[in-house]
Inverse folding.
């Protein structure tokens, strides 16, 4: 009999969690929806380990309902859904999945960037609905990318990957956040402050984590500072953008367009957004490649296996718990 019980809050690639089967009795939520809080609490009450999603709130109440918990592994790199301090206070290690979804998410940022500035979705819709009457010199005119300025807000792993991918388009890169020697060296990128980035960039791409400091970083004032020809791309976290202010900025032409993969009130979308044709809306698919989602599962399982056996997991978010 396996010594531990593990609950996985939603089906994830099975390949990943296979190694856990040797160590634990694993139950997976096979419903095609996230569990309600009460359902989740019922499932985790006897569990030693949990693999959860960014849609699960891993907070004080959750920990209260999981008294045997020895570790929690987030199936995501972002971890704003976890109260890490609370976990640390209780001596429970928690982990995330950095590295394995970097390229996938950076590619998605580019996909949204092109889709919005070259009106790919609008022209696809016209073709499908038979509204397209043939080649028209004045139809679906967008903005090109080559030679323009790309602004990266948050030059971490994903922001850096997105910036490096710009090399083929001869772009200038500006970024705000910690100094990034790789971008400085390879792209002669310029580190600037947030306000300067907003005024210089033709494309502003968000790659900062959601924290109390970055919540609504993009507000009315930020949109007013951007060029009216600029585009905003967000593959990070929805609440970094004040969506009501974004809708106003898009309606009033304060900026040219936006490509969004994440939303302030996910999965609900601020109503004005869906009426606008200068936005492209994706369904939080930044990491949605077979490889990335499989590797995320493998990494989450590795992290959890380490925690169950009393070892520091490779991607520990609160290593302090192992100092005790
Ligand atoms: C993450 O990992 O944080 C993404 O939002 C989902 O893969």
């Amino acid at each position: 009999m396996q010594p531990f019980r593990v609950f996985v809050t939603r089906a994830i690639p099975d390949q990943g969690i296979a190694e856990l089967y040797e160590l634990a009795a694993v139950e997976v939520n096979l419903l095609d929806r996230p569990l309600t809080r009460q359902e989740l609490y019922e499932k985790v009450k006897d569990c030693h380990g949990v693999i959860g999603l960014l849609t699960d709130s891993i907070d004080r109440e959750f920990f209260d309902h999981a008294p045997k918990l020895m570790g929690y592994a987030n199936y995501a790199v972002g971890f704003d859904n976890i109260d890490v301090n609370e976990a640390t206070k209780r001596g429970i290690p928690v982990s995330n999945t950095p590295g394995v979804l970097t390229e996938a998410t950076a590619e998605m940022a580019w996909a949204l960037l092109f889709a919005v500035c070259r009106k790919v979705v609008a022209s696809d819709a016209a073709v499908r609905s038979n509204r397209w009457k043939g080649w028209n010199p004045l139809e679906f005119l967008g903005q090109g990318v080559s030679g323009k300025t790309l602004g990266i807000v948050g030059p971490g792993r994903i922001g850096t990957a997105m910036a490096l991918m710009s090399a083929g388009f001869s772009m200038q890169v500006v970024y705000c956040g910690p100094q990034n020697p790789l971008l400085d060296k390879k792209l002669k990128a310029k580190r600037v402050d947030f306000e300067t980035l907003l005024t210089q960039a033709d494309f502003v791409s968000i790659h900062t984590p959601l924290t109390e400091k970055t919540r609504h970083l993009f507000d009315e004032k930020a949109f007013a500072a951007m060029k009216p020809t600029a585009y905003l791309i967000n593959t990070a976290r929805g609440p970094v953008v004040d969506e009501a202010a974004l809708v106003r900025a898009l309606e009033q032409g304060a900026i040219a367009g936006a490509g969004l993969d994440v939303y302030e009130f996910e999965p609900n979308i601020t109503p004005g957004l869906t009426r606008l044709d200068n936005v492209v809306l994706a369904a939080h698919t930044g990491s949605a490649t077979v490889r990335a989602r499989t590797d995320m599962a493998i990494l989450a399982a590795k992290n959890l296996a380490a925690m169950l056996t009393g070892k520091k997991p490779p991607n520990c978010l609160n290593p302090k718990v192992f100092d005790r």
Summary: The domain at 102-281 is CATH 3.40.50.720 (Rossmann fold).
